[in-house]
Specification:
With 471 residues, this protein is α+β, with helices and mostly antiparallel strands. It is 32% helix and 26% strand.
């Protein structure tokens, strides 16, 4: 019996060092620097090249599919075990103790954007396969670590990959929680816009980078009011509003504008209740204390009336709850308004099996349409679930219980992972039970102890899934 923990321990320093190096590459979607072989920008391509070159140097079979996705392969056999990872990350954001891409070690953890989601786990899986390659044999299947590059946006990477490559027989994505995620909610990103006519009090309003992140910053530029006393009163009201709602912000004056800034708390779009949506709070303030023109009032009032302190769709009348998968959730991830031009709202909807996507979208379209906002685009993925008795679930449960010496419970989540792109896939780690989920937040981190432990778990899992069956 191979002692996977011991094998990981002998490579501890190398795993930590290479994880830091990988995390220091700012692999954020940047279509402004996209080229033919770097469809999602140069930062992602740098991380992609770094990992693929490492795999070539270590003797793996590597295939690059036009910069969209790649695989790192080892083993033999007709069937494939897929390990689906992604190397793109959400923007670093603000409020970090140390820079988001410094990969600083403190208190036994590595702090960096992507440490948990999903570059830390990607390196863990890579070293798991490397260890299996070096110390094990008896393979009956091929193992492919499939590298995605657009998971945090539109999944164009896996769409491209599976147009050209065969579907793994079974597989897992190291992009959620341990023990085993067997079911995931349906996910839709929907965007609405309205044409802004005429001039109002607000010149611009912006909040949010990604629909799957709770915005932690919001900024509005207002025209100067008619006199100094009115501006002082508005400033006083703003700081009272911040105190009342226990949030932070800043009110400042410049030659051209009054600048109003609100600071919230970022969180993953799957759990919007864990964050504080800066954009929604600022919209609420503007509707309450600024004398808005009719059309801009409709826009900001829509944000307040339908989304303030409601991430479960109750105000939109689309709430739905499933006993295992939980509540439908709505995250307003991106908001923008420009006087005399246009305004938009982008939402991330996650719904459990049993809710009708067609019905809930129709309701949202109608309600926002009455406020002057019109649907412009969306993406949609159906809920995903694997039978609890499936061989994949049973084998991974066996591995987890062997490595952790505790029962492997089965979990349903609101997050969406690459597992849903497989015919037979689950999410498997990396977050350990009881560990704080810092993905998409400031000071995202991964415990070094957990990084090493999950590498042993993944090595055991890869070998268990790919070895020849006893005759």
């Amino acid at each position: 019996m191979i002692d996977w923990n011991q094998e990981v321990s002998t490579r501890k320093a190398e795993i930590i060092k290479e994880t830091q190096t990988f995390l220091q590459i700012e692999s954020v979607l940047d279509e402004g620097t996209a080229t033919e072989n770097a469809p999602f920008g140069q930062g992602i391509r740098r991380a992609y090249d770094w990992l693929l070159q490492k795999a070539k140097n270590d003797g793996f079979t590597v295939k690059d599919l036009d910069g969209y996705a790649a695989h790192i392969e080892y083993g033999e056999g007709a069937d494939i075990v897929g390990v689906l990872c992604h190397i793109d990350v959400v923007p670093g954001g603000d409020n970090w103790t140390t820079p988001a891409f410094s990969a600083t070690i403190r208190d036994g953890s590595i702090f960096a954007r992507g440490a948990l989601d999903d570059k830390g786990p990607t390196i863990s899986c890579y070293y798991a396969l490397k260890i299996v390659k070096e110390v094990a044999n008896n393979f009956g299947k091929r193992v492919r670590i499939i590298i995605g590059t657009d998971e945090e946006s539109q999944w164009r990477c896996v769409d491209h990959y599976f147009k050209h490559e065969e579907m793994p027989l079974i597989g897992f994505a190291p992009d959620a929680d341990f023990p085993i995620i067997y079911a995931e909610k349906g996910i839709s990103n929907i965007e609405y816009s309205m044409k802004m006519l005429g001039k109002g009090k607000i010149y611009s309003f912006e909040s949010g980078d990604r629909l799957n992140m709770v915005p932690d910053r919001a900024n509005a530029k207002l025209d100067h009011l008619s006199n100094v006393e009115e501006e002082q009163k508005l400033e006083q009201s703003f700081y009272e509003f911040l105190r009342e709602h226990e949030i932070s912000g800043k009110f400042s004056k410049s030659k051209g504008w009054l600048d109003v800034f609100v600071e919230g708390v970022s969180a993953h779009g799957a759990e919007p209740e864990e964050g504080v949506n800066a954009g929604i709070y600022l919209a609420y303030f503007l509707t309450k204390y600024v004398s808005l023109a009719e059309q801009e009032k409709r826009y900001f009032k829509t944000l307040k009336d339908y989304f303030f302190r409601d991430s479960q769709g109750a105000k939109l009348e689309v709430s739905f709850k499933d006993e295992e998968l939980g509540d439908l959730t709505i995250n307003v991830g991106r908001m923008s308004y420009f006087s005399g031009k246009n305004a938009s709202i982008g939402i991330n909807v996650r719904y459990p099996e049993g809710a009708s996507y067609e019905v809930l979208k129709k309701i949202i379209d109608e309600k926002l349409g009455k406020e002057g906002l019109h649907f412009i685009t969306h993406s949609h993925e159906e809920p995903h679930a694997l039978n609890k008795t499936h061989e994949l679930v049973q084998k991974l449960s066996k591995v987890y219980e062997r490595q952790m010496d505790k029962k492997a419970s089965l979990i349903a989540i609101g997050g969406g992972t690459y597992a849903r792109s497989l015919d037979a896939g689950v999410a498997f780690g990396p977050l350990m039970p009881g560990e704080k989920d810092t993905a998409h937040q400031a000071d995202e981190c991964i415990s070094i102890d957990n990084l090493l432990k999950m590498t042993a778990i993944y090595a055991d899992a890869i070998y268990e899934l790919a070895k020849k069956e006893e005759q």
